[in-house]
Amino acid sequence: MTCILLRLNSAAWLAIFVLATLTRPSQAADSVESTPSGVRSFRQSRAIGLQRSKLRSQNPVRIASDVKPNRDEFAQTIGPILREACSDCHGADTQEGNVRIDTLDPDLLHGKDREWWLEVQAVVSNNEMPPPGEAELSDADRTKIVQWLSNEIQVASIVRRASGEHHSFRRMTRYEFNYALQDLLGLPYDFAKDLPPEAHSEEGFQNSSDLLHMSVSQFEAYRRLARRALLRATVRGEQPQVLHWGVTMKDAGRIDWAKQQKQIDQAKEENADDPEAQQQTLQKLEESFRQRHNVPYFKDLSGGQTVRASWQYRKATYAHKPTTSPPQIPESLDHVAILPRGQNNRFRIELGNRLPDEGTLRVRVRAACENADEASPPSLKLLFGWQASNEGRALLTVGRADTPITAPSDTPEFYQWDVPLGEIYPRNSVRKTSPLGAMPNPSEYIAFVNNSVSQGPIRIDYVEVTAPVYDQWPPESHTRIFFDSTNRDHEPDYAREVLTAFIERAWGRAVAQTEIDRKLELFATMRPQCDSFEEAMVEVLATVLASPRFLYIVEDGNADTDGRVPLTGTELATRLSMFLWCSIPDDRLRRLAADDALLQPEVLQREITRMLADDRAKRLSEHFVHQWLDLQLLDFLNVPRSLEPLKESMQREPIELFHEMVRNDASVLDFLHADYTMADERLAVHYGLSSVKGNHFRRVPLDPTGRRGGLLTQAGLLAMNSAGDDSHPLKRGVWLLECLLNDPPPPPPPAVPEIDLADPEIAKMTLKEQIEDHRNHAACMSCHAKIDPWGIAFENYDALGRWRDQVGGKPVDATSKLFNAQPLDGMQGLKRFLLEQRQDQFVRSLVHKLTTYGLGRSLTFADRSDVDEIAADLRRQGDGLATMIRMIATSELFRTK
């Protein structure tokens, strides 16, 4: 079948590709794509690149035990071709880049030059060498070199892999530790917020075994955090008293209405002797009291009067007092608060100083859309804050997501937020020491913001606050540890039950009785020092969570006859759950691992499908994408306060795109260009897209011009690789090479001269002209020739990723030529080139990156054949992202140590 397909002409290839891709969700809109005459569509570019793919036709290499390097072919064919084409620049007289081609050892199995051969393969296969104007290399000779190198590299990689020259022994990352505690205790808290951030490996990953070691002091920190988590998950004594706040808007506006009435009374008093003037003054006041405001305000629906909502922190005059019994909720109210949209339009409800430290803060608000004809509902955001004095204050977003307010104004509905009080930080530090009404003010408040981009006002008529809320007592997080048992009254037996169940879930395996016995000895020592069974058990369980058996990902498989080390079922379950969920295995995965059922291919496939469909798979999207694309650059990007909501949307866009592609098993080539993106209203406005309303991300179709679509044109990735106030071609080019093509440029030599902007002649140049002038320096040429053309193709995008046609009154010139004289005509040209010429390189790069992340270690030369095999199989099966994840997780590389 493969041979027949390879004989098909270009037209047949394109027809097959069209039929195959029309069924893919990510490419459905391609059928309406239109392009200027003579310019290939991106769909056609995909088809051309697919036809050119060498990975698709690559066959697995089968090696004998006595395999030897193919020196004869090198001596007779490859060596002479290389000497003829490369010796002028890399021979006895000249060694550009410190490479001498005629002295490289062709033995990739035992020789010392395999890294140089990898570089030779890359530059020859990508047509980067020989450079234009130098010795020519025919297509036939180029194919011979690439085929010989590919075979020798794969053979050497397979042999070296069998020798087992790598390991994945490491501790959990900060985020893995946090998710593991969340899943173990059943609480969505940030248990690891006090741990320092992880370092990044050279490839940008935080979960690399080369970095994740542990000191004695770190073990102590992990035990302290584990103990704190257990104390928050469990309870002692009786259920705390519940406090209730029920606030009508008439009560919330009592001070402001009183101020308005004072104005009326003052006007009457000042004009008491002139009834006509008094009437006119009062009429003007009445008219002014009926106007709308561009800040939060109260409105009396019965009379139409309005008054601006005010707040100030002194003396807690705006604080509402709680009750110990639930308030009676009024059926209807004639006073409402109106919240116009805007980040700075905060409507506060002050609660005093009696909010507890722990438990759930439940906020319910009865609200509606002010304008019934809104095509899309406005969104409400919840904040928590305090202001003790002029200098001491805090205001934090505590709602997990904005809440769309869909109810019409005549039938308002309740909307609810449940906020863990222990997760709010910082709290008002004087709330327990300063009396209410004194300074510094100990009071705390909640605040509402209409966080919409373009929708109308929100109407609120009632706010209800309850704390601490427990839907059951003891809470579920407590009973999952201290469950009911017939041995509950006999502490030694009950302690054994609790310990056994907890340790098996935490360590992901069955536990020997000797291990349980050691923990029981510790419990017996601790019990006399504690007031309750639960208190003593928490101390023992903290040692379970501070054990290397929990903190470390340990793989102790036994070598088979081939010299490889297969993972046991338990080890595979841990590696799989860390890959897809960034956490420990769940109960189902542990059960399948316990009897080695997980080692069966069909069971493993089924579990991968289940895990990818679980909400916890979003963790893979978030953390892999963040590390793969180096999004910490965007995290650290300083923007004006007005742009912070847009920056948050920029941070979410690549993650949302990745997860959408996983859900639909979309082609990974969508990362290079797609006819859709994931956007909320802020991003849509930034991109000039219409008909996108609301703050939630959704799939948005794009026009076929190529200005947007894929990673290259996402505003956040463009902004983080800018110079602050303008684009930065060098940063953007380096990012593309490192993150997407896995082809990082060499580091710059020392003492590289900077662009002299003080020179008036240079200052008059365009950015592209300045870069070209800088590149003409001898010390700069070698690096910049490889980087600059890629980055210049991004020049139609400014520092915030907005499209532009002019800079400083001059047309943008985004054209460039690669090192091999390949022209790139802006972003459209860059995308077409990548789709037509570099599909294999990108696919292999992504397989390499995702495998590195999945294994938790840097890949070595010994892993190269596995990566090539996965990439080749992926290309033959349609390049789906979910397919790639499954292939990695079922590969021999993933299932062995």
Explain the overall architecture.
By secondary structure, this protein is an alpha+beta fold. The chain is built from 33 helices and 20 strands. Strand 8 and strand 9 form a beta hairpin. Helix 27 packs antiparallel against helix 28. The radius of gyration is 33 Å and the shape is flat.
Task: Compile the SSE list and pairings.
Blueprint: H1 2-6, H2 10-21, H3 42-52, H4 71-90, H5 114-125, H6 139-162, E1 170-171, H7 174-185, H8 216-233, E2 243-248, H9 249-252, H10 254-270, H11 275-288, E3 297-300, E4 306-308, E5 335-339, E6 346-352, E7 360-369, E8 379-387, E9 393-397, E10 403-404, E11 413-420, E12 444-450, E13 458-469, H12 476-479, H13 491-507, H14 513-526, H15 533-545, H16 548-551, E14 552-553, H17 569-580, H18 587-594, H19 601-613, H20 618-628, H21 632-635, H22 644-664, E15 676-679, H23 681-687, E16 698-701, H24 715-720, H25 729-740, H26 760-763, H27 767-775, H28 778-792, E17 806-807, E18 810-811, E19 815-817, E20 823-825, H29 826-837, H30 839-855, H31 864-876, H32 881-890, H33 892-895
Antiparallel strand pairs: 1-14, 2-13, 3-4, 3-5, 5-13, 6-12, 7-11, 7-13, 8-9, 8-10, 8-12, 15-16, 17-18, 19-20
Helix pairs in contact: 2-3, 3-29, 4-6, 5-6, 6-31, 8-15, 10-11, 13-14, 13-15, 14-15, 17-18, 19-32, 20-22, 25-28, 27-28, 30-31, 30-32, 31-32
